[in-house]
Amino acid sequence: MIVCVAVVGHQNNPLYLQSFTEADDALKLHHIVHCSLDVIDERVNNPKKIGSVLNETFLGLLYPTENYKVYGYLTNTKVKFILVTRDLDVRDADVRNFFRRFHTAYVDAVSNPFHEPGKKITSRIFAERVSTIVKSFGLSAAV
Amino acid sequence: MGKEVAESCVESVLMEMVSAYCNRFYANKPELAARRIEAIGYQVGHQLSERYTMERPRFSDHLEAIKFICKDFWSELFKKQIDNLKTNHRGTFVLQDNRFRWLTRMSIDPVPVIVKDSSQEAPVGATENKAEQATTMHLYFPCGLIRGALSNLGIPCAVSADMSNLPACSFVIRIKV
Predict the structure, then answer these.
(1) Which residues contact A92 (CB under 8 A, 6 or more apart)?
(2) What is the pLDDT of residues B5-42, one digit of tens each?
(3) Which of A29, B76, B91, B105 is the most buried (most CB within 10 A)?
(4) CA distance B107 to B131
């Protein structure tokens, strides 16, 4: 189950942060997302460490904590997507699929002429799409 | 998945936009009109670059990003690639399109010789100049497109266009260091 997703701009400014837990741990998740930015920077500046394809947008598992796994994705436009999940056995393909759909939703959201680039994404439709994607991630992982 | 619009609609919108800005909103201030049109192009380029770079690995240097503009970006917009790319390897790139789609319907009198010393030639020179100015106005939008796309990819630059031999058109990109 995904507990948190985040979109972070190219200057490490938060564009969208949404947690999907009942408990009151938004601050903790925010902190995890914040920490993962350093890991992304490190990955990007030492590109040799990333698998076989150089400069792939999917950055893979950034780091595991006791309860969570954090995955990252960096677009060509230097926008970072971060996914925090509580499942400990996650298939890479599922995460890639998630990010691909998430990226599509993001692109549609920022292509809205009323969206100001570099500002937080406030679109309700985007939020709805994200929560649908998040829910379906849980399902495909269970199958 | 992609939605399509007729090419003629895009061209009409473009022409209408240019004429609205040049003849109605900023009729007396051509520089301001140019800036506004360029800004619209910038926003469109900014958004398109996000969409068109979705499924590809990140660019490692400037040249790769420029090549992306020449090939994929141009193919998406104009169904053809840039015909010629020149660079001085110091941050200036010249992209030449031998048949720039948005200029194929333009016609300018091919009388480039303007006699300056005779007074009765002056009106001819003026109309020529006016037609050229109107054509130039149509090039601010594609310049903005390129600038928006590149700056979204992390490359701040200045783009200008040159249309000395229609319908060929070249765009000069100067990357800001």
Answers:
(1) A60
(2) 888 898 889 888 988 888 888 878 878 888 899 999 99
(3) A29
(4) 9
3-state DSSP assignment of residue B158: strand
Q: What's the average model confidence in pLDDT over B47-72?
A: 86
Taking Cα atoms as reference points, which of B175, B168, B166 lies closest to residue B83?
A: B168
Check whether A51 has a pLDDT greater than 70: no
* ipTM for the complex shown: 0.79
Q: Are strands B169-175 and B157-162 parallel, antiparallel or unpaired?
A: antiparallel
Measured in whole angstroms, the distance separating CA A35 from the mean position of its chain's CA atoms is 13
Nearest chain A CA: its distance from B81 CA (Å): 21
Q: For residue B88, give both structure tokens.
A: 């001085």
**What is the pLDDT of chain A when averaged over all its residues?**
82
Residue of B nearest to A53 (CA): B57
How far apart are alpha carbons B80 and B98 in whole angstroms? 10
Contact residues of A toward B, CB < 8 A: 10, 47, 53-57, 74-78, 103-104, 106-107, 110-111, 113, 117
What separation in angstroms does the CA of B67 have from each of B53, B108, B172? 12, 31, 14
Contact, B48 vs B149, CB < 8 A? yes
- Cross-strand partners of B129: none
- Quick: pLDDT tens for A23-39: 777 888 888 888 888 88
The Cα A121–Cα A139 span in angstroms is 26
